[in-house]
């Protein structure tokens, strides 16, 4: 059974860091492009970081560039999102996504709230 399980969200103050984890099961992340998206209520999902099946990191939007870093551990079949210098505008539900031609999987999401 294909499954993506995110963890690591929470409530932090501006300037703090969080590391999100996405553990995949039922498939190998080496066969999929993996991405992190976020979605705020009333808005569409925005890609914030991606890594290809071969481990190449893709471009991220200017809003998170230099602050968010994606990485993966193929032994643990997991993908991570290190988020530094978090700001209130980063408040959102963060989703893990796995995709390849003809297939796409989503996790359940983890809430990140940045508030003073």
Morphology call: globular
C-alpha Rg, in Å?
A: 13 Å
Helix run count: 0
Biggest sheet, in brief? Answer: 6 strands, mixed
Structural class label: mainly beta
Topology:
Elements: E1 3-7, E2 10-12, E3 18-25, E4 33-39, E5 46-51, E6 68-73, E7 78-83, E8 92-100, E9 103-106, E10 110-114
Parallel strand pairs: 2-10
Antiparallel strand pairs: 1-3, 3-7, 4-5, 4-8, 6-7, 8-9, 8-10
What does this structure look like?
It is built from no helices and ten strands. It is mostly beta strands. The strands form two sheets. Strands 2, 4, 5, 8, 9 and 10 form a six-stranded mixed beta sheet that branches. The protein has a four-stranded antiparallel beta sheet with strand order 1-3-7-6, with no helix packed on it. It starts with a strand and ends with a strand. The model has no long low-confidence stretch (mean pLDDT 96).
Would you kindly provide a brief summary of this structure?
The chain is mainly β.
């Amino acid at each position: 059974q294909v499954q993506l399980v995110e963890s690591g969200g929470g409530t932090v103050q501006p300037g703090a860091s969080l590391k999100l984890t996405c553990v995949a099961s039922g498939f190998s992340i080496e066969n999929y492009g993996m991405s992190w998206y976020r979605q705020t209520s009333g808005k569409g999902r925005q890609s914030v970081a991606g890594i290809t099946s071969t481990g190449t990191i893709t471009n991220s939007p200017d809003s998170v560039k230099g602050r968010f870093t994606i990485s993966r551990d193929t032994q643990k079949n997991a993908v991570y999102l290190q988020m530094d210098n978090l700001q209130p505008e980063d408040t959102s539900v963060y989703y893990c996504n796995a995709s390849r031609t003809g297939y796409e999987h989503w996790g359940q999401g983890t809430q990140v709230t940045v508030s003073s």
